[in-house]
Specification:
Helix content is about 45%, strand content about 10%. The chain has about 280 residues and is α+β, with helices and mostly antiparallel strands. The longest helix is centred in the first third of the chain and has 22 residues, at about 5-25. Mean pLDDT is about 90; it is low at about 100-105.
Length: about 280
């Protein structure tokens, strides 16, 4: 994808995103009268323009994907007008100002130190995912709890692809629909930084082709930041179990994330039993 095509794709994504946020915002939420002849879902374009202090024509150009190159001041005003979250504001900046990493996409590998840390955290399920959410390393606990990533073909070792296309994911995640939608929103925020990477484009296209939910939810333009929390999971050996999980950014490569799970009460015994079902590499 050349520079012109990348810019066009990014601006189209920006326009679609702004339109989706406008449609979700009700007039009463921003102090506007609803009126009796409103046919547009959410706010009208001219209402967003007024709230942001820009012309109706200028805002329309943004939604149409025109190359108008808004300033940071304009983007902040639009973010405020549309009541965007912190993650959504970052998303707008990435799309509008081409805030992509320097250099092209290259193959990924984890450092020896990170790989050793993943193994030391066993039996706590731990894995490292790269910029495209390919699983780059996984210890016994993670392979036993989710899927044996190392046994999959290299092209299948991807968290978002597994979540939406492997039926086992729906059995493992008790709240699959909620967790899958949140995962897709976080993946979208990451993908916006890599629109120039053919690997991302190919992965998104494959997701849309093979998953009805991914295709439908992608149109919502939801974005979320990476976050720690709890997950309700199910495993034949352990039954239903709630685990805490922490997401850490790898300092040497910020596009890599280490994800580790632990029991809420600190009891390692069930995780040790689980990890023991997977042989060492």
């Amino acid at each position: 994808m050349n520079v012109v095509e990348l810019r066009k794709r990014r601006l189209q994504e920006l326009g679609d995103f702004l339109r989706s946020r406008r449609a979700c915002l009700q007039p009463a939420e921003v102090g506007l009268a609803v009126g009796t002849r409103r046919r547009t879902p959410g706010l009208r374009r001219e209402e967003v323009a007024q709230l942001a202090g820009v012309s109706h024509t200028y805002y329309s150009f943004l939604e149409q994907g025109r190359d108008v190159r808004p300033s940071g001041q304009v983007l902040d005003a639009l973010s405020h007008a549309l009541r965007l979250s912190a993650a959504e504001r970052v998303h707008v900046y990435v799309l509008a100002q081409d805030a992509v990493p320097n250099g092209g996409a290259s193959s990924e590998a984890i450092s020896a130190g990170v790989g050793a840390l993943v193994e030391r955290l066993d039996p706590h399920p731990t894995f490292v995912k790269g910029r495209r959410w390919d699983v780059l390393a996984a210890n016994r606990g993670a392979r036993a709890l989710f899927v044996d990533w190392l046994a999959l073909a290299p092209g299948e070792r991807n968290e978002i692809w597994w979540m939406f296309t492997d039926p086992r994911a729906r059995d493992i995640y008790v709240d699959w629909e909620h967790d899958a939608a949140a995962m897709l929103a976080r993946f979208r925020l990451a993908a916006a930084r890599w629109l120039h990477d053919p690997g991302f484009v190919e992965l998104v296209d494959r997701l849309h082709e093979h998953s009805t939910e991914a295709r439908r939810w992608w149109q919502h333009h939801e974005v979320l930041p990476a976050a720690s929390g709890t997950k309700r999971l199910h495993h034949p050996l352990l039954g239903e179990i709630t685990l805490d999980h922490v997401v850490l950014q790898v300092a040497d490569d910020p596009d890599q994330k280490l994800v580790t799970f632990s029991t809420i009460d600190g009891d390692e015994e069930p995780l040790a039993r689980l990890a023991a079902t997977i042989g060492t590499v």
